[in-house]
Design goal:
By secondary structure, the chain is an alpha/beta fold. Helices cover about 40% and strands about 15% of the residues. The structure holds adenosine-5'-triphosphate and magnesium ion.
Length: about 325
């Protein structure tokens, strides 16, 4: 189980060097420097200064680094880059994966398994469930006491309307005992996946979907049927649906009927995106499946992120690899 705690395939090559900070958003270059300084502190010595050789004083490093910001600014990329740079035994997973680990092994056993690691990277730290948040704070507190460093990123709070609202204050408040252990970095900017003007989802057409080769790793589903099917599977199991999948064909894409279906679909989109599945679709463009009412509501950011991910996956299908 711990063996699967590594960055998703798409972030296997994420480095600080191939992160391109947007000059219009200086916080991006600052974030790169913050990650670099954080990693350098792993060696146990400050970057400059010292008893005999005094340079400008480096601020003392805290054992935690929290990357906060809107979707697509490269939080996961930077967290993966941090993970790649960390020495020794290290783990990378989403908040949900860590809570699942604690659930499966039990609290003590999970602490035992991860303790002594140099770094625990937690993508998309969730604050939705007070119980889970408390559990994870306590869990991390024990690991930090043993010398482990923590890197974390914010998720998309469901009630965060607009892209300008950051979650760092909520994060620090919720992880109470640990708050002073974290340096928080706010990364501003636009969705990187949209920087290159890939605005709309590619519609390959139902004919193209039907013509997909009948082979392992390729599926073809009727969109409506797929949405119905999602209701019968727990979202935690969606990861099983994408296992081994490389290309997903979707016939006759239509607007999602309601919020419940939309949120389930968002959960599936996240798993498809993690698995870097290419989508070939017919019907309505996939960036238009969420209705105006949904995009105006409390889950706006979740939907916008799903749209951004869907657009990227349909382009993966269009571009020669
Ligand atoms: N500044 C950047 N330079 C290079 N690649 C970037 C940059 N920002 C993001 N990317 C790439 O864009 C994609 C989206 O970035 P990433 O998933 O890290 O964003 P995120 O902030 O975690 O977004 P989300 O809210 O969707 O989790 C990734 O493939 C990532 O490697
Ligand atoms: Mg991310």
């Amino acid at each position: 189980m711990a063996a699967s705690l590594v960055p998703p395939r798409q972030f296997a090559d994420a480095t600080l060097e191939n992160y391109r900070p947007d000059p219009e958003h200086p916080s991006q270059a600052e974030a790169v420097e913050a990650v670099r300084a954080f990693v350098e502190s792993f060696a146990g010595r400050p970057r400059s200064g010292g008893l005999f050789r005094r340079g400008p004083k480096a601020p003392p490093q805290r054992p935690g680094l929290y990357l906060d910001g809107g979707f697509g600014v490269g939080k996961t990329h930077l967290l993966a880059a941090l993970w790649h740079l960390a020495p020794g035994r290290k783990y990378f997973g989403t908040f949900i994966e860590y809570t699942a680990l604690v659930g499966a092994l039990g609290y003590q056993e999970a602490v035992r398994l991860l303790s002594g690691a140099s770094l625990i990277a937690i993508d998309e730290f969730e604050l939705d469930d007070p119980g889970d948040t408390m559990l994870m704070s306590r869990f991390l507190g024990e690991l930090v006491a043993g010398g482990t460093r923590i890197g974390a990123t914010s998720n998309t709070p469901p009630n965060a309307l607009g892209e300008g609202r950051f979650a760092a204050a909520d994060f620090l408040r919720e992880i109470q005992g640990l708050a002073d252990r974290f340096t928080t970095i706010r990364i501003g900017g636009l969705d990187y996946r949209r920087r290159d003007a890939a605005e709309a989802a590619v519609v390959a057409g139902d004919d193209a979907v039907v013509a997909l080769p009948d082979e392992a790793g390729t599926t073809v589903d009727d969109f409506g049927g797929l949405i119905d099917h999602l209701a019968s599977v727990h979202p935690a199991r969606y990861v099983g649906l994408v296992d081994g999948l490389r290309t997903a064909g979707l016939l006759d894409v239509r607007a999602l009927p309601g919020q419940t279906e939309a949120l389930r679909f968002v959960a599936l989109v996240d798993r498809l995106y993690d698995a870097q599945v290419r989508i070939v679709a017919g019907g309505l463009p996939l960036d238009r499946v969420f209705g105006e009412d949904m995009l105006a509501g409390g889950y706006r950011k979740k939907y916008l992120r799903a749209i951004s991910r869907l657009v990227a996956m349909t382009h993966a299908g269009a571009a020669p690899v």
